[in-house]
Design brief:
With about 425 residues, this protein is α+β, with helices and mostly antiparallel strands. The protein contains 14 helices and eight strands. It folds into two domains: about 180 residues, no CATH class; about 230 residues, Alpha-Beta Plaits. It starts with 10 loop residues before the first helix and ends with a helix. The relative contact order is 0.09.
């Protein structure tokens, strides 16, 4: 149970105490009327108790700001102490009445675990002192009826304080339960998010209605595949194959994220990444980022090949990559019960075909992509090739490297993206 639940008592608890205080006060004042007869002070004290009770109710249910309500609550709690002290003084500090009112007041403070207890006790002391000095009369409760009514008011106060405190405990437990459930859901959502595309994950967490539907966007699409992986899978045992594949996918996915790409699919050793959705830095910048990512993957693959050779793999797999830019249908495809956020269209098909046509450790791009990145990337024109599913030959280019000035700029942007990734808050990621 959190300590914050008890910093301030529940409003209902304070209302019940003031009602019980009002009952005790009326009982004492009626006794004073009987013992000393009419006194002008009684005319002021009797309605004052009910006015105070009504003012307390209005304060509790008013539309004040949290800060103003807390300040007013502190003032009224101090007044509770003053009124309690005045009533005790009015009875000439009758032991039974002093015990009853004092105990009820202390139970209210201790039961609510209020940090303002010193202020409340100071109010009690001030009220008793002022009553002793200033009240022109006092009353001694002596009749059984007066004693019975006073004790009844005291019992009523204790009973309701206890009930209110139990309710307060129950609400605090419920609040704590909600917090624990929220933590549990956050953790489960984080684990589930690993199986969802970033775009779909973002749509779900922002509360949008996730349903079938697409839109057209100009994107740059990337496909990669490990040449020789099928043969290697037959040679390695399951543990070795799993370790190799996980290492490869982790390295490539981190590079894709660093350059701002969206990993759409991972099927075996094949990876599909696209740039320009859900966020785009411009069609040209998206294309340059995609090609830069491919070059970074190419370099990372060379390092992985060296590591795998050192681990005893004589012929480590090579990387083939294909890139194409153009208009795609992007959105949720499937049924109302099973959706997949992905891309469709000629642009996607050609990127996949270019990956299949690429040589070992080659990045093959279409003319549409080359037009966008020609001033930033060094390429070799490989002429036209026939591509399955396309009637006309396709102009293709092989990427060699970034221009020097573009490489420096890209390195700066990479560092910025990496720093941004490290400072993201988890709930936004999931």
């Amino acid at each position: 149970m959190t300590w914050k639940a008890f910093i301030y008592p529940s409003p209902k608890l304070q209302e019940l105490y003031r009602l019980a205080l009002c009952i005790c006060g009326v009982t004492i004042l009626l006794g004073a009327w009987r013992n000393i007869g009419y006194h002008s002070g009684l005319l002021a004290l009797l309605p004052a108790l009910f006015i105070y009770q009504f003012a307390s109710y209005l304060t509790t249910h008013s539309a004040l700001s949290t800060l103003n309500r807390q300040r007013l609550s502190l003032a009224m709690e101090f007044n509770d102490g003053v009124i309690t002290g005045l009533l005790i003084a009015l009875t000439a500090f009758e032991p039974i009445i002093t015990l009853a009112l004092g105990a009820a007041f202390l139970v209210t403070i201790v039961g609510a675990m209020k940090p303002t207890a010193p202020l409340d006790l100071f109010g009690l002391f001030i009220g008793a002192l002022l009553g002793f000095w200033l009240l022109p009369f006092s009353v001694a409760v002596s009749t059984p009826v007066q004693l019975l009514v006073t004790c009844t008011g005291f019992a009523y106060c204790l009973f309701n304080v206890n009930m209110a405190r139990q309710t307060h405990f129950m609400l605090a437990e419920q609040h704590e339960s909600v917090l624990r459930q929220n933590d549990w859901l956050t953790l489960r959502t984080f684990h589930l998010s690993k199986y969802l595309s970033p775009a779909l994950r973002k749509a779900i967490l922002t509360g949008k209605d996730v349903k079938t539907g697409t839109q057209e966007k100009t994107l740059t699409v990337f496909f990669s595949d490990m040449e020789g992986f099928t043969k290697l899978a037959e040679e390695l045992n399951p543990e070795q194959l799993t370790a190799l594949l996980n290492t490869y996918l982790t390295e490539m996915s981190e590079i894709a994220f660093r350059f701002g790409g969206t990993v759409d699919k991972v099927i075996g050793d094949s990876i599909m990444v696209f740039f320009g959705d859900p966020e785009s830095r411009g069609v040209r910048s998206d294309a340059v980022s995609c090609v830069s990512m491919a070059l970074a993957m190419q370099q990372a693959m060379k390092e992985l090949q060296s590591r795998w050779q050192a681990e005893g793999i004589a012929n480590p797999p090579a990387l083939r990559m294909g890139i194409n830019s153009g208009v795609c249908k992007v959105g949720n495809f499937g049924t109302e019960n099973r959706l997949d956020y992905t891309l469709l269209g000629r642009t996607v098909n050609l990127a996949s075909r270019l990956e299949s046509a690429a040589a070992s450790n080659e990045i093959l791009i279409s003319k549409d992509t080359y037009v966008l990145i020609a001033d930033a990337v060094d390429c070799i024109d490989k002429g036209q090739i026939s591509v399955k599913g396309f009637a006309a030959p396709v102009n293709v280019f092989s990427v060699t490297d970034l221009h020097k000035n573009i490489a420096i700029k890209q390195a700066i942007e990479d560092r910025a993206l990496t720093q941004s990734a490290h400072t993201r808050v988890l709930p936004e990621e999931i």
